Amino acid sequence: MEDVISVMNLSKSFGSTQAVKSLSFQVKKGEIFGIIGPNGAGKTTTLEILEGIQKPTGGEVEVLGLVPSRQLRELNNRIGVQFQATSIQKKMKVKEALDLFSTFYKGDTQKDELIALLDLGEKLDVCFEDLSGGWKQRVTLALATLHQPELLFLDEPSMGLDPHARREMWGMIRSLRDKGSTIVLSTHYMEEAEKLCDRVAMIYSGELKAVNTPDELLNDVATHYIGFESEGVSYDFLLTLRDVAHVEKEDHHFKVFSEDLQHTAYQIFTYCHQEGIVLRNFKFDRGSLDDLFVQYSEKEKTG
């Protein structure tokens, strides 16, 4: 499968602050590719370089065979961009916005198809300011895809949406992919990346920590944990155990992340046997991207 994006040793500095540090990755045609990480990790800066909005300080970037910083006009005809915030006049009706943006492109647009796909028919005569957050996101998604872009960039597409609206947005993004667009999105919602993306790049402090399918990332031992319930085991005791990296406690439910699960389990069993402490529902389990996210965040804090 061909690459539609190729990034090699990309860096970007703002004064003395290095926002992006030697990133390298590729995006395949037809996939939904996620860029994830905490706020301030460099996700938006990376997207803006790919879109041609920012110029890189160093490295090489090709998008659809073009160099964004030098061939922006040609690139703009082939990509669509949904920003975190799109400026639309408050009193402009949805139909007026669609008609206006359609005039920006030569040839036919897929306006009518998008109205049907995104269920915008009932909102065409509603002013933009009167729409809920979810409906505003639908409208800006339609505006970004009127010209049937080969490549679609989405910056935090479900930010601020309730869980139901977020899932509806995921369905719409999948539908756009099925219609032929490659999609690159940034998000700090780990569930979104896990359920929506074909592959994911994890960025922390401007550095690429991992890139793979969500399932392969979850095979990382950092997401594996010991789970159990107990009223007698203390949180502080678990943190003293060798190889334990992180402990989560909610009421009497524990999740213990360790670099050596077998040895940690042995230590817990030995301690509880000696102290007469009861363990319930003891298990080895695999976590989520949220858990991997937390592990990387903890490593960043400790240096």
UniProtKB/TrEMBL annotation:
Output the InterPro entries linked to this UniProt entry: AAA+_ATPase, ABC_transporter-like_ATP-bd, ABC_transporter-like_CS, ABC_transporter_ATP-binding, P-loop_NTPase
The record's section on PROSITE patterns has:
ABC_TRANSPORTER_1 (PS00211), ABC_TRANSPORTER_2 (PS50893)
A Pfam family (short name) is: ABC_tran
Q: Which domain of life is it from?
A: Bacteria
- Answer yes or no on keyword tRNA processing: no
Matching entries from SUPFAM superfamilies are given as: P-loop containing nucleoside triphosphate hydrolases (SSF52540)
Q: Which Gene3D superfamilies match?
A: P-loop containing nucleotide triphosphate hydrolases
| ABC transporter domain: residues covered | 5-230
Q: Which GO terms describe its molecular function?
A: ATP binding; ATP hydrolysis activity
Keywords, comma-separated and alphabetical:
ATP-binding, Nucleotide-binding, Transport
Claim: Translocase is one of the keywords in the record: no
Family statement drawn from the similarity comment of this UniProt entry: Belongs to the ABC transporter superfamily.
Q: What is this protein called?
A: ABC-2 type transport system ATP-binding protein
Organism name: Halobacillus dabanensis
